[in-house]
Write a structure and sequence with these properties.
The chain is built from nine helices and no strands. By secondary structure, the protein is mostly helical. The protein folds into two domains: about 120 residues, Hypothetical protein af1432 (Orthogonal Bundle); about 80 residues, Hypothetical protein af1432. Helix 4 runs antiparallel to helix 5 and helix 5 packs parallel to helix 6. The N and C termini lie far apart (about 40 Å). About 35% of the residues are buried.
Length: about 220
Amino acid sequence: MSANPARHHFLISHIENEFLARDDVTDRSHDINHARRVMHSALAIAAKEGGGNEEVIIAAAYLHDWINLPKNHPDRHLASALSADAARPILKRIGFSPANIDATAHAILTHSFSAGVQPETIEAQALQDADRLEALGAIGLARVFTVAGQLGTELFCADDPFALHRRLDDRRYAVDHFAVKLLKLPETMQTDAGRVEAEKRCIVLRSFLHSLAEELRSPMRW
């Protein structure tokens, strides 16, 4: 993983200590294990795409949800900008150069779906793709229903699970979120490596939806 394993070990250890010191463990979908998975995915994507600054990727992966607002919060779209600003003093304490602080802040700012800011570097592109991969596959399946439980969202509409005769509403029904956002994520990937993995993980989601349709004896249009 590392051209400088000692430096990377120091970096990961330091940021994890900061992370764990402030984590109130109320949001298991954005806990330290999520950050670790994003880090490993982002490093793997960047390596396949030709490189990138590994220290920037590691720091951005751990700090990208530093300010984590609930999905139904009115300021949710500002969370990544707030996280980017909050990351700067942490990175300065670690000894990041001004250029690497800016690069890390850019990656954090642009990772968010709701922020709508285009990532301009391989580090930012890899982070955005890695974070979106967390919404797909077996992990994504677990996370979508974890978040639904936190928000008090119904699992699906009992009368019309796959919205054949109604408008999609993923604020009310968790299964609607698959059609509204999750199954569209592969086409939003910034890198070829991210897109290939996203398509692979979408197979898991589609398999779940087909099984759900069979169990509910319901037609399915997605």
